[in-house]
Write a structure and sequence with these properties.
One of its GO terms (cellular component) is cytosol. Its main location: cytoplasm. This is 3-isopropylmalate dehydrogenase. The structure is a single chain. It is globular and about 60 Å long. The chain has two domains: about 180 residues, Isopropylmalate Dehydrogenase; about 160 residues, Isopropylmalate Dehydrogenase, CATH 3.40.718. The strands form two sheets. Strands 2-1-3-12-11-4-5-10-8-9 form a ten-stranded mixed β-sheet, with helices on both faces. The chain has twelve helices and twelve strands. Helix 6 packs across helix 7. The longest helix has 16 residues. By secondary structure, it is of the alpha/beta class. The structure holds adenosine-5'-triphosphate and magnesium ion. Adenosine-5'-triphosphate binds next to loops.
Length: about 350
């Protein structure tokens, strides 16, 4: 029976993950679950944000359902003990190079978007962001120049194999949707982007059924608010993807609604809401659990080959929202548990 690692973490992580778990339990799937400590909770209990037992559990599991990490109590710790290191450690250890971030506006949430309702309604896209390369992992540091000035440097780098494998995820994702892929880069200025564009075009030969186009990232950022309905599947590097997906999330309404998947080249994946541990509202029952619930749906679809169960969860969230269920981030008064109840009530 497939094993799911539940790493709930800090802040609102445990609250929202509990609702995702209730939804999974109600579906009566043949899955087993094992919980592990991660983040500040793990540091406090075991002295490290990513204990060996948790890493072993993550390696053994068929998929990981992740809550959030981040704890103000841990802010003063040395870098390797900070809760956030757990997520980087898991991505690296499991080779989770592909980040899928769907952003769509749920019917009824038009007024939660930063955009005008008629524009917001057109948002339904997936950003495929490369997750283990780019400026985040190149040579970096602060050095002193010949003139005695401090100089910061972060090397931006991608090799062609890294570009090709994320490009394939982009093309495969496009195949499951409208057969259109937009690659976003800055090829007019950056050598990495020039290589990116060349390699994406080479890979496109294997996907003659997918229509490929290209856009510079500055233009993409502008188009995202001007006319987001033109976007369907976007593939881009780590840095550009980070920025564009935050922009997309605001266009799609609340941060509490958006799930994500981080995948490697087997079916294993780590699934988590795009939001963080939200210490400002932790423990108060104010967190919106929908992002966590929708992350569980992505897990069923991508790692466990249970697309029907995933569809049922997504339909239940959509129906709950359409029926007026609202946590405070959506302008309502429901608690985290009551929002979970509303989703459960709509599970066909
Ligand atoms: P991280 O660095 O982990 O991404 P962050 O600093 O970006 O964290 P979040 O923890 O995502 O911050 O919180 C940002 C804001 O959004 C906070 O005001 C928080 O209360 C709110 N928020 C985050 N998640 C939710 C949620 N599920 N429901 C309601 N509000 C949320
Ligand atoms: Mg954040």
């Amino acid at each position: 029976m497939p094993l799911i690692a539940i790493l709930a973490g800090d802040g609102i992580g445990p609250e929202v993950t509990a609702e995702a778990r209730r939804v999974l339990d109600t579906l009566g799937l043949d899955l087993t679950y094992e919980e592990g400590l991660v983040g500040g909770a793990a540091f406090k209990a075991a002295g490290h944000p990513l204990p060996t037992e948790t890493l072993d559990l993550a390696r053994r599991a068929d998929a990981i359902l992740f809550g959030a990490v981040g704890d103000p109590d841990c802010d003063a710790l040395e870098r390797q003990f900070r809760p956030e290191q757990a997520i980087l450690g898991l991505r690296k250890a499991l080779g989770l190079f592909a980040n899928l971030r769907p952003a769509k506006l749920f019917a009824g949430l038009e007024d939660a978007s930063a955009l005008r309702p008629e524009i917001a309604r057109s948002i339904d896209m997936v950003i495929v962001r490369e997750l283990t390369g780019d400026v985040y992992f190149g040579v970096k540091g602060i050095r002193t120049t010949a003139d005695g000035l401090r100089e910061g440097h972060d090397e931006m780098r991608y090799d062609e194999a890294e570009i090709a494998r994320i490009a394939r995820v982009g093309f495969e994702t496009a195949r499951t949707r409208k057969g259109k892929l937009l690659s976003v880069d800055k090829a007019n200025v950056l050598e990495t982007s020039q290589l990116w564009r060349d390699v994406v075009i080479e890979v496109s030969a294997d996907y003659p059924d997918v229509e490929l186009s290209h856009m510079y990232v500055d233009n993409a950022a502008m188009q995202m608010v001007r006319n987001p309905g033109q976007f369907d599947v976007i593939v881009t590097g780590n840095l550009f993807g980070d920025i564009l997906s935050d922009e997309a999330s605001m266009c799609a309404g609340s941060i509490g609604m958006l799930p994500s998947a981080a995948l490697n080249d087997s079916n294993k994946g780590m699934y988590e809401p795009i939001h963080g541990s939200a210490p400002d509202i932790a423990g108060q029952g104010k967190a919106n659990p929908c992002a966590a619930i929708l992350s569980a749906a992505m897990m069923l679809r991508h790692s466990l080959d249970l697309p029907d169960a995933a569809d049922r969860i997504e339909a239940a969230v959509a129906a709950a929202i359409l029926g007026g269920a609202r946590t405070p981030d959506l302008g309502g008064t429901l608690t985290t548990r009551e929002m979970g109840d509303a989703v459960l009530a709509n599970l066909a």
